[in-house]
């Protein structure tokens, strides 16, 4: 499949057909596997072959098809599919660090990512340094000769700040540190993490890959050495492998991810253009729109910023809730990257538990709205937003 485009790979990549020659990929709902004799069982436990499996925590034919196809999309050698996006983040960070290590991370992260860094890793003796991810000088000052790992969201959730990935990767690799990039906002379709040298790329495959509100999932993509070494060892012993049914659902969803994400991203840009300069909004954030303060960097890294934008409604929480409650097409939810368009109020939902000083530092105000653009007609979405703003 290497000679074909990503869109073609997402339809045919990684397929393993059984003796029945099924058209659609098979779903293997089994927790264990049998062996023809005791000698074969012993040999497999010593070293399993490419298409040999032992137990569902270790691997499964359906999971393997999904992992192979996602790795093709990301442009990495391998991938490990996880139960959720947070299982993937936790697995990547825990598998690669130990007591006494130093980790540098951008400060603008999803709340659960901050919890893993500041509560879980710190509890086990890992030193954490948080920096302004948009400030290259801050990265330069924080990364030390003994830094073990660097972590960031390529585009932050929910304020859509952009990390200069090439610069940060260069700094990290100069001291021998590994780089883990959370790519949920960038999307697998527009991802540039592997090309820029990130060692591991983490996804919540709930977003964009499934993209239709059905299944939780996550994935860690990277070199075969890291994925089938420390990542697989940690995940298989701690039970973080994806369920085969979720893997099969994700596998089928990859057939349409390119079409869906490109359509949603095109609509997101149209929404941004319609909202820009609106008198009831303080600002509109979308990295690959010229109004974004990091537009030059964002457009140099990828042709699109994906399916999510953010804006601030003037008048604080009361005005913002009036706007949200007036929406007719957009659904109020804490998810994003779905086929259905979603509006989220981060200050009271996804980032509610952050102390107020951290919210202020990250720009998560009472008027901030994160908007995930779905597959509806963009003119309908724009009309819905405008009528809701008229109520404010």
Structure characterization notes:
The chain is an alpha/beta fold. The protein folds into 2 domains: 248 residues, Type I PLP-dependent aspartate aminotransferase-like (Major domain) (Aspartate Aminotransferase, domain 2), CATH 3.40.640; 133 residues, Alpha-Beta Complex (Aspartate Aminotransferase, domain 1). Helices cover 41% and strands 15% of the residues. A 7-stranded mixed beta sheet has the order 1-7-6-5-4-2-3, with helices on both faces. Strands 8-9-12-11-10 form a 5-stranded mixed beta sheet. It is globular, with a radius of gyration of 21 Å. 49% of the residues are buried. The mean pLDDT is 96.
What's the pLDDT, averaged over the residues? 96
First-to-last CA distance: 52 Å
Number of strands: 12
Output the CATH homologous superfamily of the largest domain.
Answer: Type I PLP-dependent aspartate aminotransferase-like (Major domain)
Quick one: biggest sheet? 7 strands, mixed
Tell me the structural class: alpha/beta
What is the number of domains? 2
Q: What would you call the shape?
A: globular
- Any low-confidence stretches, pLDDT <50, length ≥5? none
Radius of gyration: 21 Å
| Sheet with most strands: strand arrangement | 1-7-6-5-4-2-3
Helicity level: 40-55%
Number of helices: 15
Strand content: 5-15%
Examine the secondary-structure arrangement and name the CATH architecture of the largest domain. 3-Layer(aba) Sandwich
CATH class category name of the largest domain: Alpha Beta
- How do the SSEs run, as a string of H and E? HHHEHEHEHEHEEHEHHHEHEHEEHEH
Q: Fill in the CATH topology of the largest domain.
A: Aspartate Aminotransferase, domain 2
């Amino acid at each position: 499949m290497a000679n074909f485009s990503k869109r073609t790979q997402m339809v045919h990549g990684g397929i393993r057909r059984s003796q029945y020659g099924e058209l659609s990929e098979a779903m293997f709902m089994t927790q264990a596997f049998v062996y023809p004799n005791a000698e074969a069982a012993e040999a497999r436990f010593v070293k399993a072959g490419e298409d040999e499996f032992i137990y569902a925590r270790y691997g499964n034919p359906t999971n393997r098809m999904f992992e192979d196809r996602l790795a093709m999309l990301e442009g990495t050698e391998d991938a490990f599919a996880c139960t959720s996006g947070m299982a993937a983040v936790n697995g990547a960070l825990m598998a690669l660090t130990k007591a006494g290590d130093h980790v540098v991370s951008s400060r603008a992260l999803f709340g659960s990512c901050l919890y893993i860094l500041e509560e879980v890793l710190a509890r086990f003796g890992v030193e954490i340094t948080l920096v302004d991810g948009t400030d290259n000088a801050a990265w330069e000052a924080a990364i030390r000769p003994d830094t073990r790992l660097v972590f960031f969201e390529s585009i932050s959730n929910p304020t859509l700040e952009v990390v200069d990935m090439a610069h940060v990767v260069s700094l990290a690799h100069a001291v021998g540190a590994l780089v883990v990039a959370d790519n949920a906002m960038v999307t697998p379709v527009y991802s540039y993490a592997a090309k820029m040298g990130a060692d591991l790329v983490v996804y919540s495959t709930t977003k964009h890959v499934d993209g239709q509100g059905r299944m939780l999932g996550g994935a860690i993509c990277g070199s075969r050495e890291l994925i089938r070494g420390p990542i697989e060892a940690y995940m298989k012993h701690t039970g973080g492998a994806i369920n085969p049914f979720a893997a099969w659902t994700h596998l089928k969803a990859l057939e349409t991810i390119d079409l869906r994400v490109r359509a949603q991203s095109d609509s997101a840009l149209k929404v941004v253009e319609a909202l820009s300069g609106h008198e009831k909004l303080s600002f509109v954030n979308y990295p690959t729109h010229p109004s974004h303060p990091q537009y030059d960097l964002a457009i140099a890294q990828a042709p699109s910023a994906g399916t999510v934008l953010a804006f601030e409604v003037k008048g604080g929480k009361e005005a913002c809730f009036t706007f949200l409650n007036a929406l007719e097409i957009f659904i109020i939810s804490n998810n994003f990257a779905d086929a259905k368009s979603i509006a989220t109020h981060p200050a009271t939902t996804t980032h509610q538990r952050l102390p107020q000083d951290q919210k202020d530092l990250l720009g998560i105000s009472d008027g901030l709205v994160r908007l995930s653009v779905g597959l509806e007609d963009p003119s309908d979405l724009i009309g819905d937003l405008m009528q809701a703003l008229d109520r404010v």
